């Protein structure tokens, strides 16, 4: 299975990039600074999107996991080496921290 690592699990990371990669059959790993968000994603290895152009129909994005940028640095390095795609979805001011 193809693997993708996305730095940033916010609205664009989950709602746009995650959705596109899911539809293309990728296993997705998010790297994020929010422990709460990392925990939430890892509890079920999936998350929900609500499609505004389909009367807020729920879409489940599964086969996902998340790593903490602060606590899982070794695992993130491993994910980088095993990923087919690496993307960023962070604010401009945070790009330097991702680098």
Description:
There is one protein chain. By secondary structure, the chain is of the alpha/beta class. A hairpin with a 5-residue loop joins strand 3 and strand 4. 27% of the residues are buried.
Straight-line distance between termini: 26 Å
- The coarse silhouette is globular
Unreliable segments of 5+ consecutive residues: none
In terms of quaternary structure, the protein is: single chain
Strand order, sheet with most strands: 5-2-1-6
The succession of helices and strands, N to C, reads EHEHEEEHEH
Short overview:
37% of the residues lie in helices and 32% in strands.
What tags apply to this protein structure?
alpha/beta, two-stranded antiparallel ribbon, 99 residues, 4-stranded parallel β-sheet, 4 helices
Task: Tell me the layout of helices and strands.
Blueprint: E1 3-7, H1 11-23, E2 27-32, H2 35-44, E3 46-51, E4 57-62, E5 64-68, H3 73-82, E6 85-88, H4 95-98
Parallel strand pairs: 1-2, 1-6, 2-5
Antiparallel strand pairs: 3-4
């Amino acid at each position: 299975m193809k693997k993708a690592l996305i730095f940033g699990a916010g609205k664009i990371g989950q709602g746009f990039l995650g959705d596109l990669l899911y539809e293309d059959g990728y296993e997705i790993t998010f790297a994020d600074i929010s422990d709460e968000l990392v925990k939430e994603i890892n509890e079920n290895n999936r998350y929900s999107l609500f499609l505004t152009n389909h009367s807020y129909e729920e879409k489940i994005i599964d086969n996902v996991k998340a790593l903490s940028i602060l606590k899982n640095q070794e695992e993130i390095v491993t994910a980088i080496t095993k990923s087919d795609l690496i993307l960023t979805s962070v604010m401009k001011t945070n790009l330097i921290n991702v680098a």
